[in-house]
Write a structure and sequence with these properties.
The structure is a homodimer.
Chain A: H1 8-15, H2 19-26, H3 37-49, H4 56-63, E1 68-73, H5 79-94, E2 98-103, H6 108-118, E3 125-128, H7 139-147, E4 151-155, E5 164-167, H8 169-183, E6 188-191, H9 198-213, E7 222-223, H10 229-234, H11 236-241, E8 248-251, H12 254-266, E9 276-281, E10 294-297, H13 300-315, E11 324-326, E12 329-331
The structure holds a DNA duplex.
Chain lengths: 345, 345
DNA sequence: CGCTATACGGCAAGCGTTTGCGCAGAGTGG
DNA sequence: CCACTCTGCGCAAACGCTTGCCGTATAGCG
């Protein structure tokens, strides 16, 4: 039933020119093969009259370009990733690109599956926005995709042979830890992220380094976590039991910090008076907790824009940029304060 | 440079069968034209050996099916929408569909642009997840898309000639208002959403109805808002100036409620002791505010799943479902309480 | 044994574009 | 006036797959 839409053949007929001419004026390839202004006008007029819409599938097949990029994230419903995707979409849509999202739930298997499907699906580029693991699983797929001419760019995805925008997770964590140290904290716990996830590990490394440089040991202070709110809540008893009690806790991401805040409140501990809590990421809700969360902010949207720009550039034939990077910054709110003055009594 | 990938022609040659046979076993059209088990095995083996990946662009061109759906949202970085998208993706990916996102920033013009681009881009379905306006702008585009055979389904998008999953915005708002009434509140302000947005208007209508049924007037109690956190914050002074002072505030969405909470705290007003605040939506961060927000929860992810299932069904040739709907529920947390007992001493 | 289904598979015509190549005619410099 | 270079445009071959239409065997049936 679907009414046949107009094709360039219809336009060619109606304008009295050849298919190639129509194609050339419609797809902007005029720069290489000039078209007379009057011819072009006729074509354009016919196209408009026929309400012509190019068939992107046909274009893709013929040209090898699909005007689409795929972005792999852990979970699109996580504000961390949806913010990156928004940045990507901003520059994509400004350049007539479409973006399709793939949530992998931090599962290497699902990631590989998506990568595999990308082998069929027409995309010009793939953005690996999902954090990677120490041991990358989809290496072969990535390689074969690259071989096919797909440009792949990652964010915080070292360990893969692709250009990557670097997030200063380690530096950011170090700064935050130093901030805590400067506030006077000496017993600072760290709630770690999912094991193996480089993003999480880098933050842990930054924390460790700061402690080491301050001549402190992190022994017994790093608690297992998995980036969920529940994890942050779950560790509260451990925190309380520690002796001497920790005076500050640094969560590897905001969600855990927020969970921790909730757990602490439930336990009747007041933040930051009795214990300071800081996070990493600066998700939107970090400013609405009580107290508002001190955290390290990552310019997520800008990262998205940057990575998409990079994709576009490479698609345009330019070589991969040497150093993409996004600096994190400390944002001090009210969940961290100096520890309660010294020793009891 | 891109190494040519294997095509069905290669497989046909290697397996000693015809193109059609290969196509049939690989694309599952065997049900209609049976293929011998041994032939099929040979084909499969060759495909595997050649590391074959179907070319979806070619498939789309030849078959008219693209295995992709587009979803239009106001803003993918808004948890409300990213949650819906996640639900969509869940069932899409389980059915080998890809989903591409389009953020319109609540701008009818951008929505039309995206709709227009969908005329070129190969998608089998379009989901209008972005709330609509009283006066729909993209009607022509929608119609022409439908005519081309694209299935379009909306969420809370009445006013368009498409099946839509109904969110009980009005009922939910009425319930919430009734809850406040029951708590003893009589002066309940309402922070409205963007003018013209049906989702927002429906909630306002629900609030009004509840008040009316209680014999109360809403005059002077509905404040202009736009769904942003800032809007919620901005109205605080008005709230405080009202005489007699309102004892409860109902924001048309959570973001405004949260902003309001922040504004109230800044003004030294304690919630819910001095004034109750409730929202609508139950975004994830609603549970982490202080006090945790009483709000009406919308099963966003399930809505996403439902709408995608509907798309799939229609793609399968079934008629549009008569009544898709998603019931909202009240979730009582701690931001609403009975008003301070009666009149001042 | 003849006849009709049925199982299995090939042919070839598209699907709508892009693009390398070829070819006129109009300038241009010598 | 010639050899050339641009312009401006058409031809037709892909791009990789699906699918309607036709054969063949083979089996089933009376």
């Amino acid at each position: 039933m679907a009414k046949g839409r107009a094709t360039i053949a219809d336009i060619a007929r109606s304008a009295g020119v050849s298919l190639s001419t129509v194609s050339r004026v419609l797809s902007g390839r005029e720069s290489v093969i000039p078209i007379g202004p009057e011819t072009r006008a006729r074509v354009l007029a016919s196209a408009a009259a026929l309400n012509y819409r190019p068939n992107q599938a046909a274009r893709t097949l013929a040209s090898g370009r699909s005007q689409a990029v795929a972005v792999l994230v852990h979970d699109i419903s996580d504000p961390y990733f949806s913010e990156i995707v928004r940045g990507i979409e901003d520059v994509a849509s400004a350049n007539q690109y479409m973006v399709l999202v793939c949530s992998t739930d931090r599962d290497p298997v699902r990631e590989r599956e998506y990568l595999l499907r990308m082998g069929s699906f027409p995309t010009d580029g793939i953005i690996l926005a999902a954090g990677g693991f120490e041991e990358e699983a989809g290496l072969d797929e990535v390689r074969s995709l690259i071989e096919r001419g797909v440009v792949i760019v990652g964010v915080a995805r070292h360990g893969l042979p692709i250009p990557t925008v670097r997030i200063s997770n380690e530096e950011g964590a170090r700064e935050m830890a130093e901030h805590l140290l400067q506030l006077g904290h000496r017993r600072i716990a760290f709630i770690a992220g999912p094991p193996g996830l480089t993003t999480a590990n880098d933050r842990l490394a930054g924390y460790r380094q700061a402690l080491r440089e301050a001549g402190l040991s992190a022994d017994g202070l790093v608690l297992a976590g998995d980036f969920t709110r529940e994890a942050g809540q779950r560790v509260v008893p451990h925190l309380l039991r520690s002796t001497p009690r920790v005076t500050a806790v640094f969560a590897a991401n905001d969600k855990m910090a927020i969970g921790c805040l909730a757990g602490l409140r439930a336990a009747g501990i007041v933040v930051p008076d009795e214990v300071s809590v800081v996070g990493f990421g600066d998700v939107p809700s970090a400013q609405d907790t009580e107290p508002p969360l001190t955290t390290v902010t990552i310019p997520l949207r800008e990262i998205g824009r940057q990575v998409m720009r990079e994709v576009l550039q490479q698609l345009g034939g330019q070589p991969p940029s040497a150093a993409l990077s996004a600096p994190t910054t400390l944002t001090i709110r009210r969940s961290a304060a100096p520890p309660r003055s010294g020793k009891p009594g």
